[in-house]
Amino acid sequence: MQKKTLWATGIAAVVLVTAGVAGAYATPGLMPQPEPTVTVVTPTPVVTPEPVVTPEPVVVAPVEAPAPVVEEVAPPVPYSNSGQQVPFYPSSDPENASGGDYADPGAWCTTGSASTVGGVPVCD
């Protein structure tokens, strides 16, 4: 029972202090009151735009295109793969005993023929 009385007394004290502080703020002269503020409105200056000056058109003289330069090109040098090995294309067929075939020398070599040197065809 004493605890309930102690709690009730504490709550009553808090209520009284809160009411006293609120009353002090409400009573003129007890607590300092904020100064009233005055808002001064100044007129916005009117800016007069400056007149836009239109520049005079610029006369552009036509420019002649330079004459095309003709470069002489040397005739192409004939390509020759003489002395190169004919490429070997491996076969994806596991039953192929040789594992693949060489390219056709008639189509791959510029001379259209090849000689076998050491078992490998070489363009003539």
Concise description?
With 124 residues, the chain is an alpha+beta fold. The chain has helices at residues 2-26, 105-108, and strands spanning 88-90, 100-102, 114-117, 120-123.
Uncertain stretches of 5 or more adjacent residues: none
Arithmetic mean of pLDDT:
77
Whole-angstrom Rg: 54 Å
Beta-strand segment tally: 4
Look at the helices and sheets and give the structural class: alpha+beta
The N- to C-terminal Cα distance equals 124 Å
- Shape, per Cα inertia axes: elongated
| Helix proportion | 10-25%
Biggest sheet: strands, sense, closure?
2 strands, antiparallel
Helices and strands, with pairings:
Blueprint: H1 2-26, E1 88-90, E2 100-102, H2 105-108, E3 114-117, E4 120-123
Antiparallel strand pairs: 1-2, 3-4
What can you tell me about this protein's structure?
- The protein has 124 residues and is α+β, with helices and mostly antiparallel strands.
- It is built from two helices and four strands; from the N terminus they run αββαββ.
- The radius of gyration is 54 Å and the shape is elongated.
- The mean pLDDT is 77.
Descriptive key words:
2 helices, 124 residues, two-stranded antiparallel ribbon, alpha+beta
